[in-house]
Design goal:
This protein is mainly alpha-helical and 115 residues long. It is built from seven helices and no strands. It is extended.
């Protein structure tokens, strides 16, 4: 019964996220909200890691299969992507730099607290 419990918890949080996103008309995808809800439940101790660990590892091990649909979408819209290459490249570079700076600042702040 343990695998069923883990899957029920994971899919339950997924469904909760989807429902919340739909009910509140949010622009955040329900799957992301569900992961955040699950993270909150794990951090507060409402859900124990052992309950979902094996099933989550199963999903992570098979994650490559989940990238097939986006890959097909990229091939389907290659003309559109080529016509918008400069804005896409610009967004990628800017998001990379912002992520790098935020990560560096976060590490710096965390290291200051340790000393």
């Amino acid at each position: 019964m343990r695998p069923y419990r883990g899957l029920a918890i994971i899919f339950g949080f997924y469904a909760l996220g989807e429902f919340t996103s739909f009910a509140l008309n949010l622009t955040i995808p329900g799957s992301v909200l569900g992961m955040l809800f699950l993270l909150g439940a794990l951090l507060t101790g409402a859900i124990r890691l052992e309950w979902v660990e094996n099933e989550a590892e199963l999903f992570v091990r098979n994650m490559s299969v989940m990238f097939v649909p986006p890959g097909v979408g990229i091939v389907t819209y290659i003309g559109l992507i080529k016509s918008q290459a400069v804005p896409i490249f610009g967004a990628l570079v800017i998001s990379f730099v912002v992520t790098l700076l935020v990560t560096a600042k976060t590490v710096d702040l965390l290291r200051r607290d340790e000393m």
